[in-house]
Amino acid sequence: MYRVSGYFKNHKVVEIFHNVYDAIEFKDIVDANYPLKVTFEKGVYPMRTFIVNAWNTIMDHNMNPLSNIPDLGVRHVVMQGLAWMWCIIFSMSVGSITVFGVSAVAHALFIAGVVLTVGTFETARRRPTYFGGLGRGNGGEHE
């Protein structure tokens, strides 16, 4: 595996590649954007890194192909549809409709929680004043 990291003034970009030529091409792209520093590392990464990358490839709305859908709500609906599909596949493989009900509810709650968290984080990043009335010093009950 190859890891290319580009350090910019306000952010850092890190990508991991299995193919050295893809890594070199990405390094050239990062270099073309005038980073403060670029690193190119070759080596084996721990299983935790593999699991996190695999999870992000599927579940992170900024990394999976659903990132091409501009509306976060539509992404959520599509992810819910995929979750239901997997619930049906799993329950049919086990042979129990009860498993489907439990799995469907669990998936719906989990994905709704993830979407709510991502939406909150995005609101905090883009419009931090939205939460202005929630903190101390703004006339709250704990002053």
What does it look like?
The protein is an alpha+beta fold and 143 residues long. The chain folds into two domains: 1-45; 61-143. The chain has helices spanning 20-31, 47-59, 72-94, 97-126, and strands at 2-7, 12-17, 37-42. A three-stranded antiparallel beta sheet has the order 2-1-3, covered by helices on one side. The chain is flat, with a radius of gyration of 21 Å. The mean pLDDT is 81.
Query: H/E order of the elements?
Result: EEHEHHH
- End-to-end separation in angstroms reads 54 Å
Structural class comes to alpha+beta
Number of strands: 3
What percent of the residues sit in helical stretches (DSSP H or I)? 40-55%
For the sheet with most strands, the description reads: 3 strands, antiparallel
Q: Give the neighbour order of strands across the main sheet.
A: 2-1-3
Task: Sum up the structure in keywords.
2 domains; three-stranded antiparallel sheet; alpha+beta
Secondary structure blueprint with pairings:
Elements (H helix, E strand, L loop, with lengths): L1 E6 L4 E6 L2 H12 L5 E6 L4 H13 L12 H23 L2 H30 L17
